[in-house]
């Protein structure tokens, strides 16, 4: 039975009968243009690529923030991200989405957990960028896909294909080579890969119920008391760099919220449009840029043993990527 105006929702008009696009056009009713799937996928790829490029260039931004230390940078990053997200929610009039999430205790708990994980990730990453460990940080994001696969096995009880196990084995050998060559465990890389891998798992649990802006808003909100405590401690022990190192430095540091949120928004826009295989391939752009910055811009040491370790990691990623592409094509043919 067709809906009458009396049956319509209180906040909207009655639905128009399904006359078809040609009939609607003849009747003079404007028909919204359907997005071209190919163009949407291309746009998604461009958005995702932009996000990964921005993430890859982050070490250069953090180096410009000296003499601010890692703790102060992360604290401002949290607080200014919260301010930026609040402005964004106001401009886009999407506060209602956030309040809906805040009425669901399970989602609030998961966003708190996600906030804790991203706090650890940010602290270690910024510390690595400011202490000449950008190459090791890039290693963490190179092995992140391997960690994600392992989490799928250990937490989600997923079954791996043989080639995926081969990729994991090669990556473990790579870490072993680096440990033997340096005589120490690459903790920075492992903590970055582990924290971001578990962060991704938590975000997967949250799912589409929380959009990108609301998610970052809540994560920043949970971390705000920690950030304020950090700034109080920094002010009491050595002085806050913000405002004391010149106008240019203050402007750069005040952009921390924008620098944090913009890549996330580009990524969210890209992930909705681009195929998962494209996103999977593009994720290597960020660590490649970080690696290049560490080797050729910051001139960090890269002896033969380290090249061998990284070479094994890249081999593992090639195996994993080829397997993922083949599996995606096979699934598409079956479907």
From TrEMBL:
Regions crossing the membrane: 46-68, 74-95, 107-128, 134-155, 162-179, 185-202, 222-242, 248-269, 276-298, 304-325
Pfam families on file: EamA
Domain EamA: start-end pairs: 44-179
Subcellular location: Cell membrane
Keywords: Cell membrane, Membrane, Transmembrane, Transmembrane helix, Transport
Keyword Transmembrane on entry: yes
Topology versus the membrane: Multi-pass membrane protein
Record NCBIfam families: rarD
Family statement drawn from the similarity comment of this UniProt entry: Belongs to the EamA transporter family.
Protein name as annotated: EamA family transporter RarD
């Amino acid at each position: 039975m067709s809906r009458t105006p009396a049956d319509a929702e209180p906040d909207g008009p009655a639905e128009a009968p399904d006359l078809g696009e040609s009939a609607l056009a003849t009747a003079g009713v404007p028909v919204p243009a359907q997005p071209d799937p190919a163009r949407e996928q291309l746009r998604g790829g461009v958005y995702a690529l932009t996000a990964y490029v921005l993430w890859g260039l982050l070490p250069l931004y953090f180096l410009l923030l000296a003499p601010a230390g890692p703790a102060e940078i992360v604290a401002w990053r949290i607080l200014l991200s919260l301010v930026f997200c609040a402005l964004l929610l106001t401009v886009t009039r999407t506060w209602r989405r956030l309040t809906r999430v805040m009425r669901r205790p399970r989602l609030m708990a998961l966003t708190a957990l996600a906030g804790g994980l991203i706090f650890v990730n940010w602290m270690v990453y910024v510390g690595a960028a400011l202490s000449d460990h950008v190459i090791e940080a890039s290693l963490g994001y190179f092995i992140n896909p391997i960690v994600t696969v392992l989490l799928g096995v250990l937490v989600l009880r997923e079954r791996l294909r043989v080639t995926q196990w081969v990729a994991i084995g090669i990556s473990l050998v790579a870490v072993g080579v680096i440990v033997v060559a340096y005589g120490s465990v690459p903790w920075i890389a492992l903590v970055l890969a582990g924290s971001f891998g578990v962060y991704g798992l938590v975000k997967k649990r949250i799912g589409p119920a929380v959009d990108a802006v609301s998610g970052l808003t809540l994560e920043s909100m949970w971390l705000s008391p920690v950030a304020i405590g950090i700034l109080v401690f920094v002010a009491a022990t050595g002085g806050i760099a913000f405002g004391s190192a010149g106008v240019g430095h203050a402007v750069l540091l005040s952009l921390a919220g924008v620098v944090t949120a913009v890549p996330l928004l580009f990524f969210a826009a890209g992930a909705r449009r681009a195929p998962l295989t494209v996103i999977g391939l593009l994720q290597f752009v960020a660590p490649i840029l970080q690696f290049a910055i560490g080797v050729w811009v910051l001139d960090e040491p890269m002896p033969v043993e380290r090249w061998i370790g990284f070479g094994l990691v890249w081999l593992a990623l090639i195996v994993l990527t080829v397997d993922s592409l083949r599996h995606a094509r096979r699934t598409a043919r079956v479907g």
